[in-house]
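Page header: ASSEMBLY MODEL / two components / 615 residues total.
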Amino acid sequence: MELSCLLTTSRSAVLKLFDGGKYHTLKPYRVVVNGEPIMETNRTVTSLYGLRPDREYQVAILEGNAQVDALVIHTQPEPVFLNVRRFGAAGDGVHDDTAAIQAAINCCPAGGRVRIPAGDYLIAPLFLKSHITIELQKGARLVLTTDRSRFPILPGVTFTQDGEYLLGTWEGNPLDCFASAITGIDVEDVRIVGPGVVDGQGDKGDWWVNPKIRRGAWRPRLLFLNRCKNVTVHGVRFMNSPSWQLHPYNSENLTFADLKITAPANSPNTDGFDPESCKHVALTGVHFSVGDDCIAVKSGKIYMGQKYHVPCEDVDISHCLMERGHGGLTTGSECAGGIIDVRVRYCVMRDTDRGLRVKNRRGRGQNAVTDRILFDHVDMERVGAPFVVNCLYFCDPDGHSEYVQSREPLPVDERTPRIGQITFRHVNAQDCGACAGYFLGLPEQPIESILVEDSAFTYAPDAKPFVPALADGVEACLHQGLVVHYADQITLRNVSMTGQQGEKLVAVQVGNVLWEGEQ
Amino acid sequence: MKELQTILSALEKDPKTGLPLPDAQLVRLFQDACPLDQAGLSTLIGCIEECSEAIYEHYRVLIDLFRQEIRHIQPDEETILKGIALGILDDEEWEG
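Prediction written out in full:
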């Protein structure tokens, strides 16, 4: 087992205990700090709280009574901390604590900490500023008001002398949206630390009623970061967002560790984590159970893709548990800026509809390149379809049009997207339902390369038929192998499949099929 | 230029909201009618006001066209107020 420290703040640290496990370690361990046993853990990514600023701590990990690894960590300095109670926050779930908490944030000097102690804090949207830490201590809950008249609107587009200034966004377009529970605009060097809770109360208000209708503005999220850098979020539980839960946008150098993100299975559009046009994003040790995609990597629709062309790139997802979402890792459907270098490693997907879900369609534009997607050491349990790539996704009002759905090759033009290289290694998918994988490229722009190696698939005997890809003409299926339409190259290397009906691989208009190992 | 309601009723509707969806044909209709007179500008802002934002690339072309064309004429007050209310015109520049 190898122990490492992923990050420290002034009062907390995030540790990684890697023994080959994924979200959970292979065995339980005890964490000892300065000789004192602090906790037992079976999670690969775990947090320490209650530390003091600018101190050294000896951290040791024991298996039974034997030390297996140790290291020294050093917490960050902290010139001051501000307790929101001293600013007048009641924390009783009744009084509006927005002004008090916002005052504490605004008054916090660089390097300082806004301390939110245990209590229920009813809030309207809060705005971050740079160079601070916000700590939601154990028992602290930020409870978002359900009164939409309390939400400021972030205008989508404000016209300037020479162009436009963008703030709000909704489903890949620059549109007015309500500010989120925690909003950051142009901030840097911020830490949001748990183990408290941010509760969007989506189940209490009317955000989930007629969710596709704009009423005033589009629905808020729980965390929205626009043009931010060097932001760390760890230890917090996010729940019941009005819409997407965590939405970093046009931001970079972001770390999200040891979080829990939840919403009911039937809640609308409660994606867990949607990085959009961001770069250098690390997500580790996060547990998802949501009403839509657990993670959806995005980069806008065609207006943003053509005008700004900001891809989402270098996204590293590790040691996460994705439960019950529509997709474990989804890309798109807003991908007009491109989605490049997304790696999912040592994760578990359980009872999700799909494992990898690539959504794309004609009309996203020639900058909508999805390339270098990697799944490595991923376990799937009872996932309907482990791999789905769908370039005929019937989203948006014209989704069922002849242009989007045609199976005849259309001219490749400035509206045609592209799928590059998709790689799956060491994927163990138990109790699959519909199929091992369903790949639907474009006849005029096939998927460039699919590689599946050292992977195994079994099927659930009691699985029900399921539609793997949301495109016209795709029927529900059951216990199929890998189905590939319109690809240049597919390579299968040491792939075992047990219990499928029919062929292990059904390839339609695939340029080159390479088998190595058992066929 | 056709009447606003005639134009709107010819458009496909957003299945989720029921609002008319701007399309490439609508954009061409206004582009071909440029330079717009007051009647054309009123129809254009009426379309922007009534249409869905969902096909944003077409919706946005209509907005940019409005911002460009309004500078060529003396627009009436109603047109200006609609533009301001929709966030397309700056009130400091256009009011008074």
